[in-house]
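Figure 2 data, in text form.
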Amino acid sequence: MPGGARRSLHYAPLALAALPLLVFKDAVFGGRVFYQRDIQLAWQPQVASFVHSVASASWPVWDAFYGFGQPLLADPSGQFLYPLTWLNLVLMPGTYYTVFVLAHAALGMAGVFILSRRLGASPWAAAVAAATWMLCGPTLSLVNLYHHFAGAAWIPWVVAAADRALVARTRRASALAGVALGAQLLAGSAEMAFAAVLLSALHAGLSFVQWRRPLSAPNRRLVAGALLAAALAAGLAAPQWLPTAEVAWRSERQRLAAAERTLWSVHPAALIETVVPVSLGALPLSAERRLAFFDGREPFLFSLYLGLPAAALVGAGLLLGKGRRLAVAATAGALLLALGRHTPVYAVASAAIPVLGSFRYPAKAMAVVALGWALLAGIGFDAWRDAPPRQAGRGRWVVVAAVALALLALAVLLAVHLAPERIGAALLHQPDPFGRSPRALLRQATTDVWVALAAAAAVVAAAVSRRRTARAGPAACAVALLGAGELAWSHRDANATAARDLLAYRPEVAAAVIQEDGQRLYVYDYAGFEGKAMEHLGRASPYRLAVTPPGLTPAEAQALALRVYPVPPQPAIWRLYGSFELDGRRLFPPYLADLTAFLRVTEGTPEHRRLLRIGAVRDVVALHERGFEDLVPVATFPSLFPENIRLLRVPDALPRAYAVGGSRIADGRFALERVLVDPAFDPTREVVLADGTPRAAPAGFQARATILELRPDRVVVEVTASHEAFLVLVDAYDPGWRATVDGSTAPVLRGNHAFRAVAVPAGTHRVEQRYRPRALLAGLALGAVALVAGIALLARG
């Protein structure tokens, strides 16, 4: 290797190492924390449940706080078997998340660098690819979607390991590929792992499979290596994914309607965002346009921008580069999938590959588009610098393409400046809630286009100068620096940070809730059911701010408002037992999903209070009063919304654990809609069981149930009853729960539609329930075998 190339292998990675520190400088050097979207509303509650489980000397397998309790380990987004997650036991949430982001930014860039090198790129071209990947809009948009960000960072590693296995064709190389895929699976994103497998298979098919001799010895070796890697990866990830598969099979996740699966499809009109730095999602769009572009929500990815100057390098890679087949196929295929319901491609792919039926939100495929785009940018850097003069004719098309994209950006600017009122009438909410004019809004949204145009002009000049071979190298470097700098500028405000106090804030209403007896809390979520915000609050957007505290940005104020009013599942952060939360993860079993939905159907009726009592709900937190007239007002707290926060108490709420003497037999919708809400049904004397023999409560029946131990994966109750009884524990039923009565095994029954019941004899008895699902035990055994096998295979190398 020449001395210059050898030095590049050291300098290029060193140059990349500083990039995450610069991109996330506010979190690294400013003492601020990431907080947006899923970080606050999903990740922190999950981590709080995980830390509480470990601190309680419990296995981290059951979330005691979310939705009457739910499997914890079985939710892969929690990453509870991912080694980095265990740092949460010693780090504060904000500090951990900064470490998490920096680690996976570095991991992803290193993976792109290595994959580019394996595909034939020079060290500096690989560095260009890695930097482009890091600074792309789709990649930065995943920072707030923690498990998808980690999964995306592992994609290039899996493909690079697969390439090594395809070239070496040894067991050790296949084992390394399996380890990489297993680590990615533990990161929790099935979609990103599927993308890595698909890209690896595509790479093998394009470059290694002998299609004319399908049964040849080389092909058989490829298949054997792939099977070894897949088996090892599946074994290493089995402790996570076997419990996940068991829970998902019982839930609605496997039977998602096409309309739900294709939510957040990238609209074809939004593709202009990939090469022009504008963000439609940041504009106050009209309801009609927001419905068309983002299904009426905020965009799944806040930026799709891939870079206008970087497009010149990509064009050079397409026209002049070598080893571009994988990158081209990945970019084009993923882009078509990201369009989702807007083309027939996604439907055809879902029919051909059934596993796609359990995935949601096609916009996630833009993560693969970003990877393919970055690889093409690296390939284009080498082509720009090294392409022979005889290819100058093809190189002219790079100039043509750069000029065409620059003209597109210029057209956007001219339209905004010449016809803002007409564009505003077609796109924007009228009138703007904050009184801003369409001209001001549109000009603010297109500010970065000026920078992109200036950089594009410089790129065109560099492309013209490239016709002189002596300037090819400097021109390529100038274009690469322009592309990276323009992407960094356009995303300078991406992944906003806030003061560290935000993630540590405990709302007043949470401090006022008392759960010493284990009774539950119900916080009304206005965004979960269509029309509820309009019905109760008189507006379609339930969490619209009425006031922005001084010193906070609108985004920080919105996050604080959703903490002051503790939208579920945030109460888990403060160890408050939840109840009728909505199934945002689509992992609830049908009976629990039906129960939580039915509560909203009964609002304003006596049945509503009856269901709250049966759910052991003692306290209710809401912004409205209508429908809660039969509850007792306790306190009122200020919020950042137009309404105050109301804390209400449910009279005569049932305790968390109690014993009854009688039983009814009913299941399904009949049990929910006819029996539980029947005034003749007395939940203090009888329980509704899914199956068995009905039994009337004996005359003179008396019983007492005392919770002796309440841990996430273990509950111990002492029951004293005058006759045979049923212990009812108002915790969600799951087949993984095991029960003993005085040490003897007893079946756990599904009582009152969604809770747990155990039959106990007369007298005083100790009932213990433990959560030990068979899939977890089987997964741990398979994981141990795979770990030993993997160590043995790697050691033999």
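Caption note: Residues 613 and 653 are 4 Å apart (CA to CA).
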